[in-house]
Specification:
By secondary structure, this protein is an alpha/beta fold. Among the domains are: about 10-130 and about 230-305, P-loop containing nucleotide triphosphate hydrolases (Rossmann fold, 3-Layer(aba) Sandwich), CATH 3.40.50; about 140-225, no CATH class. The protein has helices at about 65-75, 110-120, 130-135, 140-150, 155-160, 170-180, 185-190, 195-215, 235-245, 265-280, 295-300, 315-320, 325-335, and strands spanning about 20-35, 40-50, 55-60, 85-90, 105, 125, 255, 285-290, 300-305, 310-315, 385, 390. Strand 9 and strand 10 form a beta hairpin. It is globular and about 80 Å long.
């Protein structure tokens, strides 16, 4: 194996007993930013799969590239300062109209119209801070109603008693009002009898769909908050509104970017449980971004560990927590407080995160690793299998073919203190 041949890590889909397919396949994703001091390699060669119906945890410390990776799915990385994204993100959708969208598309190469259909409809995202993600100038009705008007306008029209294919003037006006987000010419015309009743029916249809979406998130009195603004809601209620907005179109993939960071512990537990229940109900694949290892352990089927813009290790939750391989993963797990930890003592990973501006070749954890060799500082390791459903990017397990090394018979990274 060479350092220039990255492969997809093994997944549960590789097991003959599993029929799960990859909904998202990320292959050698590279997202770099042009800064004043040079090129920042924020995401550099990331490869992983998200399987149908599973929850994949993407973990790592702040600034390791988790959110940039996820935003690349939806074309939300600003360019500039981002340079052209390289690699591929293949998305296999389960849409009802496959003729209008190929079954498998590369999210990095689709046009703006196709991405507009995918974003919020087939792939949705719960952002980290609902207070910032929600528009403070719009009511809850308007913000969630926009999702239905853009992606489910036919359902809105049917709910208003309008045939989506009818050709009379009133129906045409309502279709335009739905598709064009109710612009003022349509509002003016629909305020004139006999179209006024149709407009009222349209708003009632939207309100019903929005209230149903909110009810799924167990918000008390969902119809009663339609006219409220975000600042009138608690943090937990705002997060539930975000979840309702994300799941309104029954997406294939849900990206949850630190969805409980701004909430207290009690509300966190409710939100995590809610996401899990809605995932099972809709069979949605979830990419769960977090730095909370204890939370990820409870909710995720598999875990990918990121460090300095690269995937260090990926595997089932059981493999990562009970048989960690990468020294960075071991360090993270050793730092989790436990009942056996002495009071006031916590394990720490020595050193600091490397600078990502025009970095030198080599393993980005080498300067902080107690097992690093000369090879680690001169070549890039690849992510490759060490066991079924477990892959690691480390020369301790995958030395270069041309290196005068043999794979050790004893785990070179084994040490006491790696806690499960």
């Amino acid at each position: 194996m060479t350092a220039t041949e990255p492969v997809h890590p093994p997944t549960a889909a590789d097991d003959d007993e599993s029929n799960a397919e990859a909904v998202i396949s990320v292959d050698d994703l590279r997202v770099h930013f042009q800064g004043k001091a040079g090129v920042v390699e924020a995401v550099d060669g990331v490869t992983f799969d998200l399987l149908e119906g599973e929850t994949l945890g993407l973990v790592g410390e702040t600034g390791c590239g988790k959110s940039v990776t996820a935003r690349s799915f939806l074309g939300l990385v600003p360019s500039p300062p981002a340079l052209p994204t390289r690699g591929s993100i293949r998305f296999r959708h389960r849409g009802e109209n496959p003729d209008s969208l190929p079954t498998v598309v590369d999210l990095l190469s689709v046009d703006r119209t196709t991405m507009a259909d995918i974003r919020g409809n087939r792939i949705a995202m719960i952002f980290q801070d609902p207070g910032k993600a929600l528009n403070p100038a719009l009511t809850i009705r308007d913000q969630l109603g926009e999702v239905f008007l853009i992606h489910r306008s036919a359902e809105v029209l049917v709910g208003a008693g309008v045939d989506p294919d009818a050709n009379d003037l009133g129906s045409r006006l309502l279709r335009r009002a739905a598709h064009l987000r109710d612009r003022w010419p349509e509002r003016l015309l629909l305020s004139i009898p006999p179209f006024r009743a149709r407009r009222t029916a349209l708003r009632a249809s939207i309100d019903g769909l929005v209230a149903d979406a909110l009810a799924e998130t167990q918000i008390p009195n969902p119809a009663g908050i339609l006219g409220r603004y975000p600042h009138e809601l608690s943090g937990g209620m705002k997060q539930r509104v975000m979840i309702a907005q994300a799941l309104a179109c029954n997406p294939d993939v849900l990206i949850a970017d630190e969805p409980t960071t701004a909430l207290d512990v009690t509300v966190q537990a409710h939100i995590v449980q809610l996401i899990g229940e809605l995932q099972q109900r809709h069979n949605t694949s979830v990419l769960y971004i977090s730095h909370d290892l204890s939370l990820v352990r409870r909710v995720c089927d598999r875990i990918a560990v990121m460090y300095a813009g690269r995937i260090a290790e990926v595997g089932s939750a059981d493999e990562i927590f009970h048989r960690p391989k990468h020294p960075y993963t071991r360090g993270l797990l050793a730092a989790i407080p436990s009942q056996s930890s002495l009071r006031g003592e916590l394990a720490a990973i020595e050193g600091t995160v490397p600078e990502l501006i025009d970095p030198e070749p080599g393993c980005r954890f080498a300067d902080r690793c107690g097992h690093a060799t000369d090879m680690c500082g001169s070549a890039d390791p690849v992510l490759a299998p060490v066991a079924p459903d477990h892959a690691v990017s480390c020369f301790g397990y995958h030395p270069l073919d041309d290196a005068e090394l043999t794979r050790p018979s004893v785990d070179p990274l084994a040490r006491d203190g790696a806690r499960s």
